[in-house]
Design brief:
CATH architecture of one domain: Sandwich
Structural class: alpha+beta
CATH topology of one domain: Immunoglobulin-like
Number of strands: 9
Shape: flat
Distance between the termini: 40 Å
Radius of gyration: 28 Å
Length: about 475
């Protein structure tokens, strides 16, 4: 299982970032009670079937930075309305490729470490509305509280209806010159500027970014394919898969409709390119474990397993840390002595150490329990705040049931790792084991760092404690620890 979902960094700035040079008519602030005033302007050039960037002039306490998420037309707390000759235009709806989980406020922006986003304070109107004919349009911008998904969004700021002239389409070549590789420039300007009007030239540019080394860029480009028809996308992406090999997002695009490519993509596990190895591992795992439509033959699934073992060492050598972690997870799902022994070899070599230990428990071999339990104590000089083994108590309890409890009781007393003992308590308390409650008593009475977290766990697990005072909670825990 991937442990690092794509990182989304949400932030507000205390200062309004200086706007880029813009031209066009400026909106007049609204004189509406209880709604803040905001103005908008429009960047040049503004041509039919081309990018239309709107500069947002919010109060200094608010900040706009595109992109908000990896879905190109998702503008978070910002909303546009467009009308022409008094008639509202429908918002365009790109083809949906998948869903991004999220809740609460969506005001923020994507962050990429060491690559500050460029072009602050502006949003791409053309990704939400088709401005394919020249003429005069009117645009209104609204900034909300960001709780749309909870059904309680509140309008905080709104502009007046602001006219903008869209000029005739230019014959300028799209994406002329070399395509940028800096992820901040790609996401905040280059890619969104060529989206919205689905022709083959633009598509051929977008699909190249399915192989960018930065994961966020690859996933943004994959969602950008929603502006084209599924048939057009499949033709180009399938050709790329055959000529360049698999990236993780390429696998996601082609396997569902062209399972015959799976065999060829899996062989890239032997590649020296970390990106292709990552994609090949995804293809292999799809064939072995996620064949929901039963599209892969039994022979192909056997081939996937043998390919995984044949190239496991190459994945360790070439793959990034997440790819190697995914390899260990895959091996944990393969029954048999070969995968079991390979995982123990990973543990000895500290390859994807935490995931390899967890994957061993998935085999549910009771002869592994003593060796795994011994690791919980750790060496005398262990870092007490290390998280390296923190997930192992749950894994042991989940795999071996009550047989694991003595090992957890020993670890909660003797482990040199704070979070191992904490998570042993979380496993022992629901089983009514006094050792778990005794650990909680110590945490509360000694005001340990994890006291609040443990008290919240107790209130969640025992309904009678949800409204109890801290004194009554401690009395309950003390009683259970005897």
């Amino acid at each position: 299982m991937r442990t690092m979902p794509i990182a989304l960094v949400f932030f507000f700035s205390a200062l309004l970032i200086a706007s880029t040079q813009v031209s066009g008519e400026q909106s007049r602030p609204l004189d509406t009670p209880n709604v803040g005033k905001v103005t908008i302007t429009f960047e040049e050039p503004r041509q039919a079937r081309g990018p239309v960037w709107v500069q947002i002039h919010l109060p200094a306490a608010r900040y706009i930075q595109y992109p908000v998420r990896i879905v190109p037309d998702d503008l978070g707390c910002s909303e546009f309305e467009v009308r022409r000759e008094g008639v509202l235009l429908p918002r365009r709806r790109p083809r949906i490729r998948g869903a991004i989980a999220g809740s609460g406020s969506v005001c923020g922006s994507i962050g990429i470490p060491n690559h500050p986003m460029t072009h602050p304070g502006r949003l791409p109107l053309h990704l939400q509305y088709s401005l394919d004919s020249p003429g005069i349009y009117e645009v209104r911008y609204t900034y909300t509280s960001g709780m749309m998904r909870a059904g309680s969004s509140e309008i905080l700021f709104q502009s007046a209806w602001t006219p903008v002239e869209i000029r005739p389409e230019s014959s300028m070549k799209i994406g002329a010159g070399s395509a940028p590789q800096d992820p901040a420039e790609i996401l905040s300007d280059f890619l969104p500027s060529i989206l919205g009007y689905p022709d083959s030239q633009r598509l051929s540019i977008v699909v190249q970014y399915l192989y960018h080394p930065v994961e966020t860029v690859r996933h943004y480009a994959a969602f950008a394919l929603g502006y084209w028809s599924a048939d057009d996308v499949m033709r180009q992406v399938t050709n790329l898969a055959k000529t360049r090999g698999p990236s993780d997002v390429v696998v996601g695009e082609v396997l569902s409709t062209d399972p015959e490519l799976a065999g060829a993509m899996m062989r890239y596990l032997g590649s020296n390119d970390p990106l292709l190895v990552q994609g090949a591992l995804r293809a292999t795992r799809e064939v072995m474990f996620f064949d929901r439509a039963k599209q892969f033959s039994p022979d192909l699934r056997k081939e996937a397993e043998s390919t995984l073992f044949a190239f496991a060492e190459n994945v360790v050598r070439v793959g990034d840390s997440q790819t190697v972690t995914d390899l260990a997870a895959a091996l944990g799902s393969v029954p048999g002595r070969a995968s079991h022994d390979l995982l123990w070899d990973f543990v000895r070599r500290r390859v994807a150490y935490s995931q390899s230990l967890t994957a061993i428990t998935w085999h549910k071999d009771l002869t592994d329990l003593p060796k795994l339990a011994a690791l919980l104590d750790g060496p005398p000089a262990a870092d007490p705040w290390s998280y390296e083994l923190s997930s192992l108590p749950y894994a042991l309890h989940n795999a071996y049931g009550v047989a694991a409890l003595p090992a957890l009781e020993n670890a909660i007393k003797n482990s040199n790792y704070t979070w191992v003992r904490m998570n042993c308590a979380r496993e022992l308390i629901p089983e009514g084991r006094p050792a778990g409650f005794a650990f909680a008593v110590d945490a509360i009475e000694q005001n340990r760092l994890y006291k609040g977290e443990l008290m919240e766990f107790l209130r969640t697990h025992f309904p009678q404690l949800r409204s109890a005072s801290d004194t009554d909670l401690l009395a309950f825990v003390k009683n259970q620890s005897n």
